[in-house]
Request: fold
Amino acid sequence: MKRLIFTLLFIISLGTNVWAQKRDRGEPVEASIEVLMEGNYSKVEIREKAIQAAKIQAMGEKFGYSIIQGINTQTKSTTGSQVMTMTNISEVSNTMVKGEWISDDTGYPKTRFVVRDKGEEQEIWLLCEVRGRARKVEQAQVAFESFPYNCQEPHKCNNGQFRHQDSMFLYFKTPVSGYLSVFMLEEGLVYRLLPYAQMRETYESVVPILADKEYLLFDPTHRDYFAGFGIVDEYGLETNAAGEPLANLLYIIFSTKPFNKPALTEKDGLKTIELNQFQEWLNKNRALDKNFQVSQFSITVNK
Reply:
């Protein structure tokens, strides 16, 4: 009986070690930034942009930068935090770093809006602090190319700027075959845009992508990418009023291996998920799959 118990404990211990090897916990990283609010932007989207910029800041300081873009526009504040404006926060969010975020520490990220006096006027600032774990990128990730656009020549209108009622299309090309899914954050809720709504059974979680092939997604003139599915979901972007731009975030998720979607809820014909649940899903996949890549793009919609 004692031998049986020992054998059972050994198997359990072995299984735990295997799991630990599969799950990469990375190294501790942290950073703080302060963002000066300018113009009319959704606080939810700006909060997410600030969190992304702070995470890039943390990984850049820990592992170094591959391409420096926008970093020289930052200045130190008296508190030691990095000060950013709405203009350069997008530049920092596109900076390449030699690291990849895995997970957030409990209670993080922390954000809060504060009002500060500047002479006779007042300014609104967003204070953002991130703390978590990230891993150093030891080998180059798949250098896929992707961006949102709104014209017939994708590379000529890929700046993320849209007008009220513009159609939104997505360009995607990868040097290796893999699997793709697309989500968009709008006013605090995350919407799943790809796979298309009609693909509920065949492509429940992801769509297969071929190497070296250009994909012009959400465009009704391109219906033949996925066998058996000739209907394309089209997306028009709208904002409420002149002078109140809508700021969205687009998440392009790619891996050379299939991955499962998060649990989704249907709303107005689209699959949705709460932002905190979506972030948890991203963190878990990053921890378990080094091939799991996430790119974010800012979309601004003006009247």
Q: What stands out?
A: The chain has two domains: 27-136, 145-302. The two ends are 76 Å apart (CA to CA).
